[in-house]
Amino acid sequence: MTGQERREQLLDVGRALFAERGFEAASIEEIAQRAKITKPVIYEHFSGKEGLYAVIVHREVQRLLGRITEALDATQPRAMLEQAACAFLSYIEEEQDGFRILVRDSPVTSTSGTLASLIGDMASQVEYIFVAEFKERGFNPKLAPLYSHALVGMVALVGQWWLDVKKPSRDQVAAHLVNLAWNGLSDLEQEPRLSQT
Q1: For a Cys-Cys bond, which of 33, 115, 144, 183 suits 131, CB 3.0-4.6 Å?
Q2: Eight-state DSSP code of residue 131
């Protein structure tokens, strides 16, 4: 194998193992055994388990964000919401190993690759939709990050549940998510207050 081919093989083996067992339970020895190589080869390419994991997480985040970005071509906010939800759920359905890696706990030394950091990355990608919509409605656009994090977090957590239960269908799940988000957003109050205060 060329160096690049070996690197890709290790990424594939590591991705499958981390999805199956999690970061902590996966070992360099097991990765080497599955790849039919010696441990020093892994260190040569990735400086260890943490380095391999970091590259895998980065690739998965880019895949997911790429899918969502490519899907967003509508001009109406509701259609954009539907496209984003369907793209996210398609990723979960088609890249189950990748999503499992993204929603598992990361190494203690890492600040990326956690569900919270994934939600933050994705929320910043869709925040501009809320900014534009809030400006058009006369709402405070500084609140757009709050709403984008809430929406992305809702989709991510429902996706995590849906990955395990496998029903209803992806389109039904997307329709229900959009129903909750859109019908909640369509009657959004400019200055919401808690009823108990």
Answers
A1: 144
A2: H
